[in-house]
Amino acid sequence: MIRNSAAEMAAKLVAGETTSVALTQAHLDRIAAVDTDVHAFLYVDTEGALAQAAAVDAKRAKGEKLSPLAGVPLALKDVMAQKGVPTTCGSKILEGWRPPYDSTVVANLKKNDIVILGKTNMDEFAMGSSTENSAYGPTHNPWDLSRIPGGSGGGSSAALAAFEAPLAIGTDTGGSIRQPAAVTGTVGVKPTYGGVSRFGLVAFSSSLDQAGPCARTVLDTALLHEAIAGHDPKDATSINAPVPQVVAAAKSGDVKGMKIGVVKELNGDGYQPGVRARFEESLELLAKAGAEIVEVSAPNFEYALAAYYLIAPSECSSNLARFDAMRYGLRVGDIDGASAESVMNLTREVGFGKEVKRRIILGTYALSSGYYDAYYGSAQKVRTLITQDFIKAFEKADVLVSPTCPTTAFKIGEKANDPLAMYLNDIATIPVNMAGIGGMSLPSGLADEDGLPVGFQIMSPVMKDERMYSVGAALEAALLTQWGAPLLDKAPLLGGAR
Amino acid sequence: MDCYWKWADSQLGLNLIRLKPMSSLSRDDVAKLAGLARIEMSEEELVNLSQEFTVILDAVARVQEVAGADVEPTSHPLPLRNVFRADVVVPSLTPEEALSGAPAQEEQRFRVPQILGEE
Amino acid sequence: MTLSYDDVVAKYEPVLGLEVHVELNTNSKMFCGCSTVFGAEPNTQTCPVCLALPGALPVVNEKAIESTIKIGLALNCSIAPFSRFARKNYFYPDMPKNFQISQYDEPICVDGYVDVEIETDEGPKKFRVEVERVHMEEDTGKSLHVGGATGRIHGAEYSLLDYNRAGIPLVEIVTKIVPGTGKYAPEVAKAYVAELRDILRALGVSDVKMEQGSLRCDANVSLRLIGAEKLGTRSETKNVNSLRSVERAVRGEMIRHAELLNAGGRVVQETRHFQEDTGLTRSGRSKEQAEDYRYFPEPDLVPVAPDAAWIEELRATLPERPSIRRKRLQEVWAVPDKEMAAMINADVLDIVEATVLLGSDPTKARSWWLGEISRIANDKNIAIANLAITPQDVAEIVALVNAGELTDKLARQVVEGVIAGEGQPADVVAKRGIKVVNDDGALMAAIEKVCAEQTETAEKVRNGHLPAAGALIGAVMKETKGQADAARVRELLLGHLGQATS
Ligand SMILES: [Mg+2]
Ligand SMILES: [Zn+2]
Asked: Domain for residue A90, yes or no?
């Protein structure tokens, strides 16, 4: 049952073949069996999940009209505030903090009766591409436990790949949904910026952060997308327009006559051969399905990484200033005679990990008087150029595509001491965040040289998210025919249960 | 009056916390930044970060290659304007909820160590 | 050796700069729905947004934007077609986010002015104070310092924070430098803040209570030798909490600077704190190392771009400018300059106008509020507006006097009674049994009694020496406990003593 898609589980619930309590318990059992190895979860809310499941079952028994995913369990990235449930963002500084409020995403999940199993591991404050930056230890990739599950949302992607949950919530600031999806053989979508409320998403970089759906199939992500998206008056940057019809698009999977633009700059040197091979193969399948493949150029994408590593740290240096030991979270050094300032300094020294400090210092520098124009200001101009590149490219193509990341999952510890090498992971995902458009990663097979999953990225214009779902569904169907079974069936067994 | 008096301040030779020019940061620069960011740092951390920054700043300084005067900066991905809420009171948290995460509290207030500096 | 003020202004020219923070009187806070009501129990008006809980986001209060645009229009500013919020980054425990959402290089309103008029040796003179900008920001929480002897920050062992005020909408009004005021700098500063307060009150956008901190003034003062071009070093005196203090603070700083400069020293650029008791300022944080606030556009908010239609809609709601209103009232009421100035000084213009609108004649309304009632307010040491007497009460009392039902003297007793909380004028009249003696019989009895007692004086009047009648009338009034109408007494008395009345 746990290897079904969310849509299949929902169908079984509707048909009365199982109950939400049984389904939830099955996932809790799976977590108990494999999570000591995978470490996808930071907190498992056994009681809360079972109570929620029982409530959905009761509603169903009464014949109430329920939403499509009602009763299906989900893993929540620990960056989302959930009332009364520990929310750490993978940081020591928030250890033990229980929010007195629900994020809008959580409120929407509850409204849709989606059962929240617990909170998943992540790079501290979503800063990283490997989940090694979690203060609570790394998460392991179910395909190879010695490898990273991507980041920052490695807990969510690993939970999906290990069948600990059929659905998960991620957040994507520079690729934190898509890159973990790519390296775990799962599906992840970063919706258009403003498509899903950021209220209650603990901010890393406000102008780039976006929450989105993660699952094992394109249709499942679409179902979850519609459950969490929509205008939120509590988020001034939320788009006040109808949610794109992504479920319909995922169901039809029709790409006939669609123009698919291959971004010249997001392929080639630096991309692993197996990654490039799977990408080319997928393009052929899409062409066979009736799409027209064109090449587009985005000359300014080469500056995206540099601009990102100025904008995100700048915003984070300000966003993370609130963690100061005064109102919540960790407090260190509060001894007789200590000043508030020294307590702040000590708490932030102890409470933040190395990467977080690195970015806060970098951002503080980039915003400081005399350097603003050269760094932050210039980065904002690059952002304009990248957006213009996308506008031009979308004049030639309905969606754009690229490999999601240059390589497959690397070994835990391999890049821990080389921040620049780590940053390169996000080279193909970052432009999407800079322009606020939509992006999806879905599995396109395994790299020949290492047998690890490869991700295929689809990008769609602002509020045209349905397009990436059409293309994703078409490619998924073609690949499934070719493989004969879901890619994750090739993943090694964990904890025995299959 | 930060804005307005800026020119007057510059006339008077008042220095903002100035750092050395681009692309490299000394140990002391990092110490100043850590002070601004309220992060205590060991000597080792200061030295390590200043070395890392030499590499990182080289990489990010590339943005200046294409950022000409004719390019408008984009601070936000969406061209939204005038998003407001009506001036309506909604229920606050209870004081218990508000103080639920407080490391220390007293008389329904957040208790914090002595505040030095400006009165 | 303390310099005299005259010595200071003989040698130096003061340059002013004024920064006023105004708390708006919106129902909810600037970026969240928490109530703004003053004086609530600690931390009962807080939420994830104004406590800066992780994940919370701000949303701008529309009314606050409208109020700010109105203020800009009333101060003759241009309203920016595009403005933005910025983050001002610095750590302080009473500021939950450790940045203040403020405005930096893109404020809502720019380039305005306020004209003020002050009395000079050469008569009334007008000064124009130019306004650099009007922008929006948010207030901080309040800290209570525990363990120190004085409740002040120095020597405190720890502090207790209440975030009820955190996030209250603030408007900051910044002037350009104000040169050319010469020796009148303190008066110009006071007149500017007073005018600003009147404008804001007329707009209805703030309570403008300096003593409660809903209007706070920071005064920047520098001196330069007369004729010199280069500005001197300024000091910034914070949170001056009354009009009188504005004047005293500027004057005090001018003298302090001059003493330093004359002694060959230099003025330190710093923040200073005004002390009500001594009228002097005390050194605060030195600005030798200016804070680096690392301003950048607030990414959680979108720009404010008011269109012309919205601005014109707001312009149409602007009330009459206070200075114009004062001129109009002076003309309509036919009040001499001096009296008008007295009313403005005593801050009774609104209340007098309200009384006149309720039917009182201007002279009587003015004389009650400026005279008897002001005196009682002074005695009790409370603001006139806080006395338990309303324009309605005064208008009624004036009407009773006009109808002959009260004498001026009796009316004073009624005013006293109303202020003492005995009810409305009619209630006081009834409870105290105050009434004019209109019964001619009773009056005649008193007149006969007085004339019999003071035969000599009565004889003088009988012989045509009318000024002597005053003493008799006084005695009759005393006899009737002041409840008689003096004019009627005079009439009856003169008749009684054989003198025709005209
Ligand atoms: Mg300010
Ligand atoms: Zn609030």
From this structure: yes
Nearest CA to A99 among C29, C47, C160, C140?
A: C47
In this structure, the strands spanning C158-162 and C169-175 are: unpaired
Residues of A in contact with B49 (CB under 8 A): 357-358, 361
Instruction: Select the residue of C98, C295, C296 nearest A321 (Cβ to Cβ).
Output: C98
Task: Decide if pLDDT at B10 tops 80.
Answer: no
Kind plus residue range of the DSSP H or E element containing A455: strand A453-460
Kind of pairing between the strands at C158-162 and C142-146: antiparallel
Contact assignment for B86 to C62 by CB distance below 8 Å? yes
Question: Distance (Å) from the C-alpha of residue B101 to the closest C-alpha of chain C?
Answer: 10
Query: Could you read off the pLDDT of B92-115 as tens digits, one per residue?
Result: 999 999 999 999 999 999 999 999
A135 within a domain of the structure (yes/no): yes
Nearest-angstrom CA–CA distance, B5 and B13? 12
Is B95 in contact with C44 (Cβ distance < 8 A)?
yes
Spell out, as residue ranges, where chain C has pLDDT lower than 70. 1, 149-154, 285-290, 501-502
Q: Which domains does chain C have, with CATH numbers?
A: 5-309 (no CATH), 320-432 (no CATH), 440-496 (1.10.10.410)
pLDDT in tens, C7-61: 999 999 999 999 999 999 999 999 999 999 999 999 999 999 999 999 999 999 9
Amino acid making up residue B34: A
Residue C131's pLDDT is 98
Q: Which residues of C touch A314 (CB under 8 A)?
A: 296
Ligand nearest to the CA of C174: 1
CATH class of the region B22-71: mainly alpha
In the residue annotation, A152 being an active-site residue is answered as: yes
Ranges assigned E (strand) in A223-354: 259-263, 292-296
Report the C-alpha gap between C239 and C218 in whole angstroms: 5
| Per-residue confidence (pLDDT) for residue B12, from 0 to 100 | 34
Domain span including residue A236: 6-301+383-490
The domain segmentation of chain B, as residue ranges, is 22-71
Using CB atoms, list chains with 3+ pairs below 8 Å to chain C: A, B
Q: Which residues of A touch B37 (CB under 8 A)?
A: 317, 321, 348, 360-361, 364
For C131, nearest residue in chain B (alpha carbons): B4
Given A134, A152, A205, A402, which residue is catalytic? Answer: A152
Amino acid letter, residue C170: L
Give me the residue from A239, A300, A324 closest to B78, CB to CB. A239
User: Is A77 among the residues known to form the active site?
Assistant: yes
Is A460 part of the annotated catalytic residue set? no
Within a domain: residue A359? no
| Interval C410-431: pLDDT, tens | 899 899 999 999 999 989 988 8
Q: Structurally, how many domains does chain A consist of?
A: 1
Q: Look at B110 and A327 and tell me if their CB atoms are within 8 Å.
A: yes
Pair of tokens at residue C246: 């504005």
Label residue C374 left, alpha or beta by phi (over 0 means left) and psi (-120 to 50 means alpha): alpha
CA dihedral over A44, A45, A49, A51, signed as positive or negative: positive
CB proximity A463 to B under 8 Å: no
The CATH number for A461's domain is 3.90.1300.10
Task: Give average pLDDT by consecutive 10-residue segment, chain A, 498 residues.
Answer: 97 98 98 97 98 98 97 98 98 97 98 98 97 98 98 98 98 98 98 98 98 98 98 98 98 97 92 96 98 98 96 98 98 93 97 97 94 94 97 98 97 89 91 98 98 98 98 98 96 72
Closest CA to A169 of A79, A43, A73, A77: A77
- Check if the beta carbon of residue A458 is closer than 8 Å to that of residue A189: no
A252 touches chain B (CB under 8 A): no
Let me know if residue A171 belongs to a domain.
Answer: yes
Distance (Å) of CA A270 to CA A306, A451, B55, C269: 17, 19, 20, 56
